[in-house]
Specification:
single chain, about 700 residues, alpha/beta, 9-stranded mixed β-sheet, 9 strands, binds guanosine-5'-diphosphate
Length: about 700
């Protein structure tokens, strides 16, 4: 029989870890009583140690799930007593004052504003001096709410206790002998859920504070009959409170008391007195209660197991996973995805990207040196003269070309091209870190971006220096082959045509915005006339020696009100775009002319073609060295860093935590664990049926 309770206590805590629903609960003993009724003293007497928090302000703020495990003597030697908090991982605690301190800390951790918490503390005590029992210590009922306790405290405590005194639990109602039972909050609460007193056991403390006859009267239970009876105790510890042998001292006091009142308590054999009796009584009651729950719980577990098995089949096709396998898969898929992405960084792709960047630079250089130059149209006219030899062109144009070429080659190509590629890598990593499954793992994502950015930082300086070094020759001299020239020229034509159509589109947009071509022309005419006037005016100003300007000041506002300022600015943009189109069209004609087609000797006439060839060469060289210095290094290091930095140093607990960050994996693991645990419980329950060949004896009375 002993064995059965022991097993059932084990099964009970397994069931608690599966879920907290009432359906899967084996009974425990819920200990209730008002503050100062002697509840703690009773529990400590049962355990034989002082271990519960003491203090003036309410000390039990969380339920304590107290599991007592009897450890039998081995080879005539008594095993060491110890306690354990399975939820905290503190290991075995041999010193009961440490247990007391831990419980106090856990209680004090409940914010004062909440006062009590529903979250139970799991405490196990292993000792040769305890019976196999499970008890739940609950906050004591308070009579009056004091000032520093919240208004609702009374209800909160009552609600919490109510949850624990439901079926199938046994209720241990602690009442002090010197308080009228009619006023006992514990008995009142018990009667609400167990009106017939079938699963309530009364404990009358402080028997020494009332006359023996009166005490015996309470224990007889005539006034408030309880099926499981009353046990009278004297649990007060005499003398040293902090001594860990309190239990023994208290027990002696109790024995003395009942011993010296033998004539009252000994004569009626049905009266139960003393802590030993209480212990035995609790064991019997728990045993028989558990035994009678056995059938029901077995059925409930069977149902839950069937459901879990079915769900596991339907949802996951019986596929088992482990946190470890998830971690390994995550890293593998990361490497795989990364490998896919590296395709975006093949050399031709990089070269095209760099070329794009350099073409923008070419256009900037052209704008700066040619398009804004008032003499720009001359160049086309010069180029169309077949008799003019390149060497006869004014030195002005030759200098211009040299300036343009050096502006391009000295524009920081090494740094810009390296950063362009590095930014590409960075945003690639950022997109991996932001996507599944790393969106579920913010800390891992942070690590991932951190170490990849670090690799990049390490390489950027070296790479941009190397690239800059290798394009150095182009800063002095660029040799152009006829085939390169032709490609450059064609590309320039293409770029200009694109630019023209872009400008035309912008013009079109402005036209639409201001309300048609005619209106735009009107605006432009107006802006031009304003500019003319402005010019005249500044000439006049320049002529005048003194500041006689009233005439003009009066004129100005009248004129400005004709059009809204936003439209005037649109008109100015429109003028800029059409000027630009004009220049570009002229240059396009030149680029398509015989002169330009002739080859590299025409470079003075066709700077656009020449600069495009330079850009091409720069892109080619940069791409080559970026590939060696940056990409190859990065692609080599990255997978290695994943192995050695990403999830390498996780212990079992962290691996589980990591896996559970992903909600899909968490659900899978939860169901899998639930099924496993239910299977295990079912196995244990089945093994019990062999132990339970005999029917359980009915609860006895002493
Ligand atoms: P709790 O608040 O219900 O946990 O009550 P305690 O166990 O802390 O007891 C409250 C007070 O009653 C303490 O001062 C105890 O020493 C005292 N006390 C507890 N049991 C007995 C007893 O059997 N006899 C006497 N005389 N005092 C007791």
């Amino acid at each position: 029989l002993m064995h059965l309770t022991r097993k059932l206590i084990e099964i009970r805590s397994m069931l608690l870890s599966i879920d907290q629903s009432d359906a899967l609960k084996l009974p425990s003993i819920a200990v209730i009583g008002s503050q100062s009724s002697g509840k703690s003293s009773v529990l400590e007497a049962i355990v034989g140690h002082e271990f519960l928090p003491k203090g003036n302000n309410m000390v039990t703020r969380r339920p304590i799930e107290l599991t007592l495990i009897h450890t039998p003597a081995k080879d005539g030697k008594l095993p060491v007593e110890y306690g354990e908090f399975p939820g905290l991982g503190l290991g075995k605690i041999r010193d009961f004052t440490d247990i007391q301190r831990t419980l106090t800390d856990l209680n004090l951790a409940v914010p004062a504003s909440e006062a009590v918490s529903n979250d139970p503390i799991d405490l196990r005590i292993y000792s040769p001096n305890v019976p196999d029992l499970t008890l739940i210590d609950l906050p004591g009922y308070v009579q009056i709410s004091s000032l520093d306790q919240p208004e609702t405290l009374k209800e909160k405590i009552a609600g919490l206790c109510e949850k624990y005194i439901r079926e199938p639990n046994i209720i241990l109602a602690v009442c002090a002998a010197d308080v009228d039972l009619a006023n006992s909050p514990a008995l009142r609460a018990s009667r609400k859920v167990d009106p017939l007193g079938l699963r309530t056991i009364g404990v009358i403390t402080k028997m020494d504070l009332v006359p023996a006859e009166q005490g015996a009267g309470i224990l007889s239970g005539n006034r408030y009959p309880l099926h499981l009876g009353y046990v009278g105790v004297v649990a007060k510890s005499h003398g040293k409170r902090s001594n860990s042998d309190t239990g023994l001292v208290a027990q002696r006091g109790e024995k003395d008391y009942f011993g010296s009142n033998k004539e009252v308590f000994g004569s009626q054999s049905s009266l139960m007195v003393g802590t030993d009796t209480l212990r035995r009584r609790l064991m019997e009651v728990l045993e028989s209660s558990m035994a009678s729950s056995l059938h029901g719980i077995t059925n409930a577990v069977q149902l839950e197991l069937e459901e879990a098995t079915y769900q596991f089949k339907v949802q996951y096709n019986d596929r088992r996973i482990s946190p470890e396998s998830y971690v390994a898969e995550t890293m593998d898929s990361l490497k795989l995805r990364f490998k896919d992405f590296t395709q975006q960084f093949r050399r031709p792709v990089i070269r095209a990207k760099l070329k794009g960047m350099l073409e923008d630079k070419v256009m900037d250089v052209l704008e700066q040196l040619y398009w804004l130059d008032k003499r720009a149209p001359e160049l086309g006219v010069l180029g169309s003269d077949p008799k003019l030899k390149p060497e006869d062109v004014e030195p002005y144009w030759r200098h211009k070309l040299e300036a343009a070429s050096s502006l391009l080659t000295k524009s920081g190509v090494g740094r810009d091209s390296t950063l362009l590629v590095a930014d590409g890598l960075r945003s690639l990593i950022d997109s991996i870190a932001a996507g599944e499954p790393f969106n579920f793992h913010p800390r891992a994502a942070e690590r991932l971006t951190e170490f990849s950015h670090m690799i990049l930082r390490d390489r950027i300086g070296v790479t941009s220096d190397q690239v800059e070094n290798c394009i150095k020759p182009f800063k002095y001299d660029v040799e152009v082959e006829p085939r390169e020239w032709e490609t450059g020229r064609e590309r320039a034509v293409q770029l200009f045509e694109n630019e023209v159509s872009m400008c035309e589109q912008k013009l079109q947009e402005i036209k639409k915005k201001v309300g048609g071509g005619r209106r735009l022309n009107g605006l432009i005419g107006y802006v031009k006339s304003m500019e003319e006037k402005q010019k005249e005016r500044s000439l006049k100003f320049a002529d005048r020696s003194d500041g006689e300007q009233q005439g003009e000041v009066e004129e100005q506002p009248v004129e400005s009100y004709r059009y809204p300022p936003a439209q005037l600015s649109d008109a100015r943009y429109a003028m800029m775009y059409s000027d630009r189109i004009g220049v570009l069209k002229l240059r396009l004609m030149a680029l398509k002319s015989k002169r330009c087609r002739a080859g590299p000797q025409s470079e003075v006439f066709c700077p656009e073609a020449f600069l495009n060839v330079v850009a091409d060469k720069l892109a080619y060289t940069s791409a080559m060295f970026i590939n060696i210095e940056l990409l190859d290094q990065f692609f080599y290091q990255f997978p290695r860093e994943i192995d050695s930095r990403l999830l390498y140093d996780l212990d079992r607990k962290e691996i589980v935590e990591f896996a559970r960050e992903n909600p899909v994996v968490r659900r899978h693991l939860d169901l899998q664990e639930r099924k496993d645990k239910l299977e295990e419980v079912m196995k244990q329950l089945n093994s019990l049926s062999t132990l339970r060949a005999d029917p359980q004896p009915a609860p006895r009375r002493h």
